[in-house]
Design goal:
286 residues; four-stranded antiparallel beta sheet; elongated; 2 domains; seven-stranded antiparallel beta sheet; cNMP-bd_dom_sf; RmlC-like_jellyroll; Jelly Rolls; alpha+beta; 9 helices; cNMP-bd_dom
Length: 286
């Protein structure tokens, strides 16, 4: 009887762990067997008041779920540095790590360095100890490497085709697109802003490799190269370009409603506003 009860408790615990994982959007898209394997790697950890769980700008070596107490999330360098958040029972922090791992898991080797934590996570000065369930980076890599098959995301991309992923450029004449291609350049960002919220959009970019977090201050999403179809940002720059070419007075650059942050190392294909301004749309827009 005791053995049956023990098995029942173990099964219930696994179900609870999987339910906890499903609070994270990216885990909701994963197969049940993968989630069960990940749930077995969750490790309980305890921290006392004033102890850091993660430090800002230090390697993001885990994501975690709060199972007792509350965790303070704060940042010195972020744009909302004065805003402090709290992770309470059932909340999680560090999902950037999961997006980063799933982006690189189909490659032969992971980047040598982990992405950096964008914030600090610590136990408040008052409020007692905190218990978390931690998912370490090495454990996550190990599980996903066992279950994930290689994709074609490393196939070389034709830059002309890449430009046509932008709706306003899709029907533009080939000669104009070729001229724009001549100004495209590859850049690498590492744990840094690519574009900041409320700042002028001085370029548009296409993600060649890596993952980018996108936030408006209240919600967060993640962009990556989706199977050879690069996510992009800065479409408003195209509208600005077309408008400035059709009027005698150049329009002011639009401002970005989002911040784009490179998680770890990210390679992007960049088109700067100054270079785009040198191209004439002409009469080739069909």
């Amino acid at each position: 009887m005791e053995s049956i009860c023990s098995k029942s408790k173990s099964h219930f615990k696994k179900l609870c762990m999987v339910t906890l994982l499903k609070k994270v959007e990216i885990f909701q898209q994963m197969d049940g067997q993968v989630l069960k394997a990940i749930s077995k790697r969750l490790k309980p950890m305890n921290f006392n008041a004033k102890q850091y769980i993660l430090k800002e700008k230090k390697p993001l070596n885990m994501m975690f779920f709060v199972v007792r107490g509350a965790v303070l999330i704060k940042s010195v360098s972020a744009m909302d540095a004065n805003v402090k958040k709290t992770c309470e029972l059932g909340s999680f922090y560090g999902e950037e790590l999961v997006h980063w791992v799933t982006t690189w898991v189909s490659h032969q080797t992971f980047p040598t360095k982990l992405p950096l934590s964008p914030d600090s996570a610590l136990c408040p000065y008052h409020g007692g100890s905190v218990e978390i369930l931690a998912l370490k980076s090495d454990d996550l890599k190990s599980v996903l490497s066992d279950f994930t098959l290689p994709t074609d995301s490393d196939q070389p991309l034709d830059w002309l085709t890449t430009l046509k992923n932008v709706e306003r450029l899709e029907t533009m004449g080939v000669e104009v697109l070729k001229k724009i291609c001549g100004y495209l350049e590859l850049r690498t960002y590492e744990d840094a802003y690519i574009i900041q919220k409320d700042k002028p959009i001085e370029m548009m970019f296409f993600i060649m490799s890596g993952v980018v977090s996108v936030t408006d201050g209240s919600s967060k999403h993640y962009y990556r190269n989706e199977g050879g179809c690069p996510n992009h940002s800065g479409d408003d720059l195209i509208e600005h370009w077309l408008k400035s070419k059709s009027t005698s007075v150049p329009a002011k650059l639009p401002t970005s409603p989002f911040s784009f942050w490179a998680i770890g190392e990210v390679e992007v294909l960049v088109l700067k506003s100054d270079d785009l301004a040198k191209v004439q749309p002409g009469d080739q827009i069909r």
